[in-house]
Amino acid sequence: MLDIFSGATNTHCQRCYQQATSHIMSMFNTEMICMSCKDKEKRHPDYPAAQAAEREAVQRGNYNFAGIGKPADL
Questions:
Q1: Which UniProt keywords apply (predicted)?
Q2: 65 lies in a domain?
Q3: Full-model pTM
Q4: Total structural domains in the chain?
């Protein structure tokens, strides 16, 4: 994976590598993704399971949850 989010200039999506003016962390893993990739992610059938796992981890005090892993078809 390209390390294009290191340093202060976060300009590209770590998933699709397109230029991005804003980004958000994936619910599935620790990639910083553009809003277009986030929209695709939200439509994935495993998204509710990823949300539940994140919620449970935070409730247990794990604020650095790495996610359940990105599905191969995403």
A1: Plasmid
A2: no
A3: 0.81
A4: 1
